[in-house]
Amino acid sequence: MHFQFVLKNKGRAVQAVLGGLARGSAVKIDAREAEPVATAMVVVLTYWLSYEYVCNPRKALEPGKRRGGTGARRLPRAELLMPYLEPPARDHLHGLVAPYRQR
User: Fold this and answer.
1) Residue 19 neighbours by CB under 8 Å, 6+ apart
2) Kind and range of the H or E element at 76?
3) Is 64 left (phi over 0), alpha (psi -120 to 50) or beta?
4) How many CB atoms sit inside 10 A of residue 38's CB?
5) What share of the chain is helix, strand, coil (3-state, %, to 5)?
6) How does pLDDT run across 60-89, given as a tens digit for each residue?
7) How many other C-beta atoms lie within 10 A of the C-beta of residue 58?
């Protein structure tokens, strides 16, 4: 039950961020789309490291080989937000994630 509470609060927080980005004109998202996008982002935020572990468990267990950094830098999966970003914000986000994609 506690984890459900945590997930619900994560969803509210992500929706609040989306709302703030929309008010700031960085994101153009219909209110009907905000909740499903926020939910998808919460799922990715919550389960990304588990996904990476399942994809390559041996590497995850080797000292110095943890891939947590790749998961952290992909959160909240920019691709989920890209379609809703206004062009200047989209260009800015592409610039922010570019160095990580080159690794």
Assistant:
1) 34
2) none
3) left
4) 23
5) 80, 0, 20
6) 767 665 444 554 455 446 778 889 999 999
7) 7
* 36 C-beta neighbours (distance < 10 Å), count: 9
The pLDDT tens digits for 33-51 are 999 999 999 998 888 878 8
Cα 61 to Cα 37: distance, rounded to the nearest angstrom: 32
On whether the CB atoms of residues 52 and 71 are closer than 8 A, the answer is yes
What tokens appear for 61 in the block?
């267990």
Residue 100: CB partners within 8 Å, gap ≥ 6?
70, 73, 74
Alpha carbons 54 and 45: distance in angstroms, whole number:
16
